[in-house]
Amino acid sequence: MNFLHHRRHFLAAVGSLSTAGCLVQRDTAATDVSEDPPRSDTTGSTHSQTSTSNESNSMDSTHTDNGPTDTTTSLDTVGIAVEEIRIDRIIESPYQSQIVADIVISNVGPAQYGTLEFRADAYYEPPADDRTYHPPRVSTRTAVGRTYIERQYDSFDSGTRTLRGIVIQYDADDANGSTDPARFDIELAVRRVNRLGA
């Protein structure tokens, strides 16, 4: 009986060790202006597809996320513009490869924001002469991955902010195995905003 009891404990210990995952490499560069280190939730896709600061007591919250439909609104609607997208590197992996990028946004509207939450969709654009596969598995612009980004600010009323170290996971087969940052693009949409002083 004691032998079976100890054997169960041994198997439980082995099971817990076997479920340990791998760490995801992230960009830890310092953030611009009042931005704190980011928090983003990343999901991969197969042919589909943050930070804290003092909050104001007078904060108007607008939610564009509507449950499982993942409803978003355009950047123009809330007065946010993308100034630059810098894809720093592609991290290869036999499981889920990663796009690592910095995105510079600006507030071009009249509103002041305390919180902005975005959905970032990554796309692969194959070149006309892609010879990675014969024939290429992907021949048209294809959505390959998605992540969610949240930032909180004391007040974002003007100027620019940089969303640093954005990581989007994707299946390399959806991008013909490409590791060329120039073949990838990222689009932002707004999921949720908190307006200050409303």
Supply database-style keywords.
198 residues; mainly beta; five-stranded antiparallel beta sheet; three-stranded antiparallel beta sheet
What is the fold's blueprint, element by element?
Elements: H1 2-18, E1 39-44, E2 59-63, H2 75-78, E3 80-91, E4 97-107, E5 112-124, E6 142-156, E7 160-170, E8 184-196
Antiparallel strand pairs: 1-6, 2-8, 3-4, 4-7, 5-6, 5-8
Give structural notes:
The chain is built from 2 helices and 8 strands, in the order H-E-E-H-E-E-E-E-E-E. It is mostly beta strands and 198 residues long. The protein is elongated and about 55 Å long. The longest helix is centred in the N-terminal third of the chain and has 17 residues, at 2-18. Strand 3 and strand 4 (97-107) form a beta hairpin. Helix content is 11%, strand content 43%. The strands form 2 sheets. Strands 1-6-5-8-2 form a 5-stranded antiparallel beta sheet, with no helix packed on it. Strands 3-4-7 form a 3-stranded antiparallel beta sheet. The relative contact order is 0.28.
Q: Strand tally, please?
A: 8
The level of helicity is 10-25%
The fraction of residues in strands falls at 35-45%
Strand order of the largest sheet: 1-6-5-8-2
Which regions are unreliable across 5 or more consecutive residues at pLDDT < 50?
Answer: 3-32, 34-40, 43-68
One letter per element, helices H and strands E, the order comes to HEEHEEEEEE
Counting copies of identical and different chains, the oligomeric state is: single chain
Specify Rg, calculated over alpha carbons: 21 Å
What structural category do the secondary elements indicate? mainly beta
Total of helices: 2
How would you sum up the major sheet? Answer: 5 strands, antiparallel
Average the pLDDT over all residues and give the rounded result. Answer: 73
Straight-line distance between termini: 69 Å
Instruction: Identify the overall geometry.
Output: elongated
